[in-house]
Amino acid sequence: YNDDHDYRDPAKRDLAGMRCVGKMATLAAYSYKTAHGQPIVYPRDDLNLASNFMYMMFALPTRPYDLDPVACRCLEVILMLHADHEQNASTSTVRIAGSSQANPFACIAAGVASLWGPAHGGANEAVLAMLEEIGTVDRIPECVARAKSKTDPFRLMGFGHRVYKQMDPRARLMRDMCHKLLDHLKIKDPLLDLAMELEKVALSDEYFISRKLYPNVDFYSGICFRALGIPREMFTVIFAVGRSVGWIAQWIEMAGEEVSRISRPRQMYEGAPERPFVPLSERRREDGDEETDDSRPDSADDLHHLGRMLSVRIANSHGA
Q1: Catalytic amino acids?
Q2: Under DSSP, is residue 159 helix (H, G, I), strand (E, B) or coil?
Q3: Which residues is 284 bridged to in the sheet?
Q4: Best CA proximity match to 143, nearest among 125, 156, 126
Q5: Which of 55, 85, 215, 238 has its CA 20 to 30 Å from the CA of residue 254?
Q6: What's the Cα-to-Cα distance from 178 to each of 52, 57, 133, 145, 182, rounded to whole Å?
């Protein structure tokens, strides 16, 4: 979309927001199809966002594709629960970019770049990697003991949350949806069985209960993605699809403020206080010997003079 719109107009802001949310799912599905060498599937006007995304991801032009309502509802729940979550890294990035009056699509691209980092957008991928490392149900006690040890680097991914000191309220909804999906699909997957057993152990272990280390939304969403047949490299992409709703809502709110100020976080200097300048000829190396390189400037005036000489030389070389 061109950049000729006046985003001070509320109608133009809303239009940009709808376009952004609508296109994010389409672009994500297109990227999946392109990566797998499959023909691109266009969206359908009779489907909602989640159903359309499933259709564009898995349908083929050569045969009919029947949408599973429970699977579509599960994806819809995932998208809604990831839509917005206060001032996380990517949302703050969108707002900072938007404060310079960049167009909304550039701001969303900035949010995608922030979400790309594994510390932000890769949490549910880490859950599956952890389950693969555990391997089998009989190794759960051993791995739980390792997770409790301060000297062992192993950690249970998908448990606890930086903000919530009780169970993540999103996780309750995601857990119910996860169990419903697995019961509905009747998938026989050892990794999913392992995840369900690990959940039981963690919820009954006093170590995790006392520290409020409950399974979070990433634990259950990673399991749901696997059950839905969505490859791991698409997890963060779908996260971005859901979070784009919150990103654009934050941008619309900010762009509509009467007083617009560019974001300028304050940086506090905590280094050494003012120190006297010591000429190089008077300085000593760490080994105790004095500096003997007389070719270096030993005062601020000498340094300024050297800079002017270099500028003249550079200018002469360009003229030649």
Answers
A1: 161, 218
A2: strand
A3: 290
A4: 156
A5: 238
A6: 20, 20, 22, 26, 6
